[in-house]
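Lab manual, section 2.4: Encoding a predicted structure.

Procedure: take the sequence of the chain (255 residues), apply the prediction step described in section 2.3, and record the output as structure tokens. A sample record is shown.
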Amino acid sequence: MKVTILGSGTSTGVPRIGNDWGACDPNEPRNRRSRVSIAIETAEGQRILVDTSPDLRSQLLANDIGRIDAVFWTHDHADHCHGIDDLRPLRFGRAGPIPGYANEVTVRRLRRRFDYVFAGQFGYSTIVDIDSLDRLRMVCGLGVRWCEMPHGPVFSTAFRFDNGKKSIGYATDFSEITDDMVNLMQGCDLLIVDCLRRDPHPTHAHLGMALEFAKTVRAERAVLTHLDKSMDYRTLCDEVPSNVLVGYDGMELGF
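Recorded output:
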């Protein structure tokens, strides 16, 4: 498998509009962060996308991705789904809609907000055939498991993708560590984990919580994502354990 970090930034990205870099060095390219999303590619060349960030078009172009075989959503917050229209070119040339998956609440909200994506409109084809995660066990040869995570007053979905003995966990936008999360991610080879800033936050993991989660589940490697403007890449690299990597846009990790 190969995973690409398409976007590693918080909801406003880095820099924020107004050219606000905060504590991040603008001369370090890995500090320029778009909104979070990942792509996973199997050895057979099939590819899944997790979340459709508002920066999806530029992410797909930057990483030379012109086809996906399935799409997942963690939740319906704008920074995770408002690039959904950029799936339209990925529908071209397909015999049918792109398979899509999310929990029942997210499915309902996405259908209401982007009805044309899931039902077609004015003669345009349906772009995504969306379904609940409840009946899903495998996609593109990958085993799929999931659980809900507290995200302040709402929930976000954590995913684990297994291919033989190798596994990738994706847990972004959570504010506490639950038993379900620990059970899901236990022993995963790579854990991509929410890490907004150093100080505690009401809806996101901070650095201490992210490192605690990775240690608790005994992840072989962890990658920090959803980083805000206080998290300078080089400074943060010097703070984390050797098996923890600071994520950046375009980062590729293979197995």
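Check your result against the sample. The two ends are 5 Å apart (CA to CA).
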